[in-house]
Amino acid sequence: MQEENYKPALNNKSKADSVIRGSFKLFTGLKSNTANIVVDVLSGYDFKRRAELVYKISMLKWTFRKSG
Question: Around Cβ 39, how many Cβ atoms within 10 Å?
Fold first, then answer.
């Protein structure tokens, strides 16, 4: 049951990652078949790390709000 809850979230993260890379490729004029690792290095944007950071910050904010 719990596995079903996070599958859509993983799918959404994957789609967002793809859109970010695709936008970067389009903006820079790279071919669509350019390897993802190359795009990640060139863009300097680590989507997974950013998502984890935003999650941690959100959880800290929530904890402080609950404590008053």
Answer: 17
Rounded distance between C-alpha atoms, residue 26 and residue 5, angstroms: 33
For the chain, what is the radius of gyration of the CA atoms? Answer: 16
Per-residue pLDDT of the chain (68 residues; tens, 9 = 90+): 455 666 777 788 888 888 989 999 999 999 999 999 999 899 888 777 888 899 999 999 999 999 97
How far is Cα 65 from Cα 68, in angstroms, rounded to an integer?
5
Provide φ and ψ at 33, rounded to 5°: -95, 10
- How long, in residues, is the chain? 68
Rounded to 10°, the helix 2-28/47-67 angle is: 130
